[in-house]
């Protein structure tokens, strides 16, 4: 966050082990909002595996130095500077005691120790611990921690830190203390403390081996009625990790704490996870089905980090995907299991589809821009900028490929070996790959390229059927798509791609498969291991010309190119036994149609209807053998953002026109079917956040949203008004409000005004719901009379708006800039001017949040010329004004 002219680039190749190690850390906090005193006693020794250093260089930021002693004696040879503290001429082994002060009340960055709603919280990953006290703040320095917290008892009745509570009691002057001890060695980024007026939902359970565990979900008192789902999610996570990976909770106590000011989703601090309220608090009135599912996923994610991240951590931050990719994979598998059991492929597919949608829209876009980097980056300026879709989501796909190659059992063997070798250590992505390779007796040298090469791989497929010889050959060629120069530099050779394939016969059934050289038919889905730039696989004894089902279940994070005809896609949509590819066929069909229409819109030509898509969608909508949740996903058109990315030159207005045209066409042609689907998927009675009930609500509300597109939306308005008034849950209420807003935008009628007012009045006391209220308005469709930017600017002045609260900033500013492309990319540049103002304002408050927003313009070179020029001007304006290392790295890379 420093204000340097030439930012320092940190490189992976420069890694060197720390010159000193710190075995134990004893921290004492006197918690006062404006001046907290921190006394830190460290057992330091020279690292036998490192080069000799005369001085101990500790990191520290925004700290006031008070005193230093070594082995109890004042040490004068200390130099405090902007980036830390140099302790000069130190002995080989010594006890260092440092006293300093920080100002949590003034800390708006939400990194380090800060105050939110009058309570104290910490966030240390990646480099926040150095804002609390001086330290070797790097993940390969692991220590055991003892923490004493002292604070006013009335203002801060609850005092929490990592591990086990070993002492507590009263102090003079109305103060009290608590002492915590974490028995496990950990890096400083996993340290946490919480102090304040909080209450907990508690539950005691027995872990797999019969040990008693105390589970707590801590929140502000008025939120206690919204903690049950988080607790249930935690218990499910514990059980799933025991069953699937044999991993047990290692502490006697596990705590989750919710905080409303938080930069991201949640943080896996050892035994004391700190969460954004958005990923903890839920009851039927305030949270949607999507919120319930997200809470389950994030609670799982943070809990799973206890083994993948905490027990085995990262040697350096270049290895971030070691813990994040692996833990995302684990949370995806957990959510899939929760939505249908570990074995039900059709139910698991809906989760897979949702994850792949995110990957393709967000990670593939990252690959195509100036921030493209490998899963294991080679360099960074600000590490917080590298908590990316590539590290997380592509990283998860890389981990998933081991499981695709070795099966669930082989993957488990690799995990077991990984923990056997590395428990308690700080290791690398190579160590993980070696464990997978050794446990399965495989050479995975080529697989390393998935970690070191940036860009989205592309696999082009051609097929040939020889009817006389009954041979079907599939030729796969690999390369990269859309690579930026930075990504191209990393691309050294072909990848090992597990490419799952099936062949579908003319009757729609899977054919049994026999590859050339095999003596018998095998399974109907085969994972081909592609290792060369071009490779041909030949299936023999193929009775009739098949249709290939390619990359089943999205077995690798690649783009597949194959020239399917529209009728072939419709056939796959109707028959493929692989649910992912059934969905994929519909998306290909829709994308093709939408891009053709967008090209016409871009060229100012009239849009014409095509019935192929309507017929295919009609069959899906009315097919009772398909689950409602699958139908919902299949009938959702690709997003405007995704579509714009597929154009040679992104034209958001044209994409919007094309997509609206198709939505209206689908609404009109299938009106009776949508009305029938609406009625057939009502979920009367008590709200339940189960996958089945959520699936019904999802399809019903999708029907409502299509109906709101009709020229005469009277039916939609009638249904939505009744649904809004009668709703006993937020999913239905928010969907009804959104349908009314849609109908209002389309017709100019004021259907939504009253409902919006009612929504605000009803939920004024629920910040997470008010976030939805802001976000619904920021993402609404504009009208010619009132572009959305005007609404957004008016909402910035609303008394409930607060730029310092990241959730609120995201609900209004990010929603508009990132989730309303047609309005944000207005031809007059008004969206970009707004974006620049907000990035500059946030830069001074919270660089991490500002840097996220700054990324919104990074694909500027891919837009139409007018937009491109306006975007560059906005980027230049920001580059000239911002100070933080975080934002500067983003805008400078974008402009380079
Ligand atoms: N490990 C944290 C992310 C920390 C982000 C720091 N800027 C949450 C997670 O991935 O679980
Ligand atoms: Zn994580």
UniProtKB/TrEMBL annotation:
<dbReference type="InterPro" id="IPR012779">
    <property type="entry name" value="Peptidase_M1_pepN"/>
</dbReference>
<dbReference type="Pfam" id="PF01433">
    <property type="entry name" value="Peptidase_M1"/>
</dbReference>
<keyword id="KW-0645">Protease</keyword>
<dbReference type="InterPro" id="IPR027268">
    <property type="entry name" value="Peptidase_M4/M1_CTD_sf"/>
</dbReference>
<dbReference type="InterPro" id="IPR037144">
    <property type="entry name" value="Peptidase_M1_pepN_C_sf"/>
</dbReference>
<feature type="domain" description="Peptidase M1 alanyl aminopeptidase Ig-like fold">
    <location>
        <begin position="455"/>
        <end position="563"/>
    </location>
</feature>
<dbReference type="GO" id="GO:0016285">
    <property type="term" value="F:alanyl aminopeptidase activity"/>
</dbReference>
<keyword id="KW-0862">Zinc</keyword>
<dbReference type="Pfam" id="PF17900">
    <property type="entry name" value="Peptidase_M1_N"/>
</dbReference>
<feature type="domain" description="Peptidase M1 membrane alanine aminopeptidase">
    <location>
        <begin position="230"/>
        <end position="450"/>
    </location>
</feature>
<dbReference type="GO" id="GO:0006508">
    <property type="term" value="P:proteolysis"/>
</dbReference>
<dbReference type="Pfam" id="PF17432">
    <property type="entry name" value="DUF3458_C"/>
</dbReference>
<dbReference type="GO" id="GO:0008270">
    <property type="term" value="F:zinc ion binding"/>
</dbReference>
<dbReference type="InterPro" id="IPR035414">
    <property type="entry name" value="Peptidase_M1_pepN_Ig-like"/>
</dbReference>
<dbReference type="Pfam" id="PF11940">
    <property type="entry name" value="DUF3458"/>
</dbReference>
<keyword id="KW-0479">Metal-binding</keyword>
<comment type="function">
    <text>Aminopeptidase N is involved in the degradation of intracellular peptides generated by protein breakdown during normal growth as well as in response to nutrient starvation.</text>
</comment>
<dbReference type="InterPro" id="IPR014782">
    <property type="entry name" value="Peptidase_M1_dom"/>
</dbReference>
<dbReference type="InterPro" id="IPR024601">
    <property type="entry name" value="Peptidase_M1_pepN_C"/>
</dbReference>
<dbReference type="InterPro" id="IPR038438">
    <property type="entry name" value="PepN_Ig-like_sf"/>
</dbReference>
<dbReference type="InterPro" id="IPR001930">
    <property type="entry name" value="Peptidase_M1"/>
</dbReference>
<protein>
    <recommendedName>
        <fullName>Aminopeptidase N</fullName>
        <ecNumber>3.4.11.2</ecNumber>
    </recommendedName>
</protein>
<keyword id="KW-0378">Hydrolase</keyword>
<dbReference type="InterPro" id="IPR045357">
    <property type="entry name" value="Aminopeptidase_N-like_N"/>
</dbReference>
<dbReference type="GO" id="GO:0008237">
    <property type="term" value="F:metallopeptidase activity"/>
</dbReference>
<keyword id="KW-0031">Aminopeptidase</keyword>
<feature type="domain" description="Peptidase M1 alanyl aminopeptidase C-terminal">
    <location>
        <begin position="567"/>
        <end position="896"/>
    </location>
</feature>
<feature type="domain" description="Aminopeptidase N-like N-terminal">
    <location>
        <begin position="29"/>
        <end position="190"/>
    </location>
</feature>
<dbReference type="InterPro" id="IPR042097">
    <property type="entry name" value="Aminopeptidase_N-like_N_sf"/>
</dbReference>
<keyword id="KW-0482">Metalloprotease</keyword>
<comment type="similarity">
    <text>Belongs to the peptidase M1 family.</text>
</comment>
């Amino acid at each position: 966050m420093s204000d340097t002219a030439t930012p320092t680039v940190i490189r992976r190749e420069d890694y060197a082990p720390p010159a000193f190690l710190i075995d134990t850390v004893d921290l004492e906090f006197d918690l006062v909002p404006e001046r907290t005193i921190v006394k830190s006693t460290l057992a330091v020794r020279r690292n036998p595996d490192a080069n000799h250093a005369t001085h101990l260089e500790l990191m520290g930021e925004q700290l006031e130095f008070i005193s230093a002693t070594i082995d109890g004696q004042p040490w004068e040879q200390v130099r405090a500077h902007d980036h830390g503290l140099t302790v000069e001429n130190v002995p080989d082994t010594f006890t260092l005691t440092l006293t300093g002060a920080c100002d949590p009340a003034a800390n708006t960055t939400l990194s380090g120790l800060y105050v939110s709603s009058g309570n104290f919280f910490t966030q240390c990953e990646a480099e926040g611990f150095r804002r609390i006290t001086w330290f070797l703040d790097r993940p390969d320095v692991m220590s055991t921690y003892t923490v004493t917290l002292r604070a006013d008892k009335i203002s801060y009745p609850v005092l929490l830190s990592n591990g086990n509570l070993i002492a507590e009691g009263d102090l003079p002057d109305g103060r009290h203390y608590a002492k915590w001890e974490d028995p496990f060695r950990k890096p400083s980024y996993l340290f946490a403390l919480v102090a304040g007026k909080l209450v907990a939902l508690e539950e005691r359970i027995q872990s797999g081996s019969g040990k008693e565990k105390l589970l707590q979900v801590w929140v502000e008192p008025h939120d206690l009625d919204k903690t049950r789902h988080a607790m249930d999610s935690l218990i499910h996570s514990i059980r799933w990790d025991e069953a699937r990976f044999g991993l047990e909770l290692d502490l006697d106590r596990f705590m989750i704490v919710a905080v409303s000011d938080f930069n991201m989703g949640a943080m896996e601090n050892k035994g004391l996870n700190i969460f954004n309220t958005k990923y903890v608090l839920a009851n039927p009135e305030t949270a949607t089905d999507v919120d319930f599912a997200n809470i389950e996923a994030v609670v799982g994610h943070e809990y799973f980090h206890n083994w993948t991240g905490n027990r085995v951590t990262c040697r350096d931050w270049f290895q971030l995907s070691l813990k994040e990719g692996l833990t995302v994979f684990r949370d995806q598998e957990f959510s899939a299991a929760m939505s249908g059991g570990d074995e039900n492929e059709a139910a698991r597919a809906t989760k897979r589809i949702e994850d792949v949608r995110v990957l393709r829209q967000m990670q593939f876009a990252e690959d195509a821009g100036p921030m493209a980097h490998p899963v294991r980056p080679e360099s960074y300026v600000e590490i917080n900028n590298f908590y990316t879709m590539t590290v997380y989501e592509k990283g998860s796909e890389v981990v998933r490929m081991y499981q695709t190659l070795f099966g669930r059992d082989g993957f488990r063997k690799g995990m077991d070996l990984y923990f056997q070798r590395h428990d308690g250590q700080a290791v690398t992505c190579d160590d993980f790959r070696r464990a997978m390779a050794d446990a399965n007796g495989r050479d995975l040298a080529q697989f390393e390229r998935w970690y070191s090469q940036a860009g989205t791989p592309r696999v082009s497929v051609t097929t040939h059927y020889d009817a006389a010889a009954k041979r079907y050959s599939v030729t796969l060629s690999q390369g990269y798509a859309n690579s930026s120069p930075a990504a191209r530099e990393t691309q050294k050779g072909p990848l090992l791609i597990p490419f799952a394939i099936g062949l579908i016969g003319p009757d729609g059934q899977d054919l049994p498969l026999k590859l050339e050289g095999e003596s018998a038919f095998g399974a109907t889905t085969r994972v081909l291991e592609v290792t060369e730039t071009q490779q041909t696989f030949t299936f023999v004894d193929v009775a009739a010309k098949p249709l290939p089902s390619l990359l089943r279940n999205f077995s690798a994070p690649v783009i597949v190119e194959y020239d399917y005809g529209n009728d072939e896609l419709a056939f796959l949509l109707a028959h493929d036994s692989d649910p992912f590819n059934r969905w994929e066929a519909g998306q290909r069909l829709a994308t093709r149609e939408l891009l053709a229409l967008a090209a016409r819109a871009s060229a100012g030509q009239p849009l014409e209807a095509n019935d192929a898509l309507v017929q295919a969608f009609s069959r899906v909508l009315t097919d009772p053998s398909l689950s409602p949740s699958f139908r919902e996903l299949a009938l959702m058109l690709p997003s405007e953002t995704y579509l714009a990315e597929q154009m040679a030159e992104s034209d958001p207005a044209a994409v919007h026109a094309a997509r609206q045209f198709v939505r209206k066409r689908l609404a009109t042609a299938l009106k009776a079917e949508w009305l029938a689907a609406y009625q057939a998927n009502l979920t009367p009675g008590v709200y339940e956040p189960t996958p089945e009930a959520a699936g019904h609500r999802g399809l019903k509300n999708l029907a409502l949203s299509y109906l709101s597109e009709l020229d005469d939306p009277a039916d939609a308005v009638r249904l939505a008004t009744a649904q809004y008034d009668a709703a006993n849950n937020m999913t239905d209420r928010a969907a009804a409000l959104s349908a009314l807003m849609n109908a209002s935008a389309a017709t100019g009628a004021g259907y939504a005004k009253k409902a919006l007012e009612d929504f605000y009045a009803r939920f004024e006391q629920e910040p997470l719901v008010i976030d939805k209220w802001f976000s619904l308005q920021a993402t609404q469709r504009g009208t010619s009379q009132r572009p959305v930017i005007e609404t957004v600017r008016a909402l910035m002045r609303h008394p409930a708006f607060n730029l310092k609260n990241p959730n609120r900033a995201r609900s209004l500013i990010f929603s508009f800039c990132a989730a309303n492309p047609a309005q944000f990319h207005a031809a007059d540049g008004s969206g970009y001017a707004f974006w620049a103002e907000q990035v500059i304002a946030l830069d001074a408050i919270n660089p991490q949040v500002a840097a996220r927003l700054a990324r919104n313009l990074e694909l500027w070179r891919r837009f139409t010329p007018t937009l491109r020029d306006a975007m560059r001007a906005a980027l230049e304006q920001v580059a000239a004004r911002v100070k933080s290392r975080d934002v500067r790295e983003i805008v400078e890379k974008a402009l380079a």
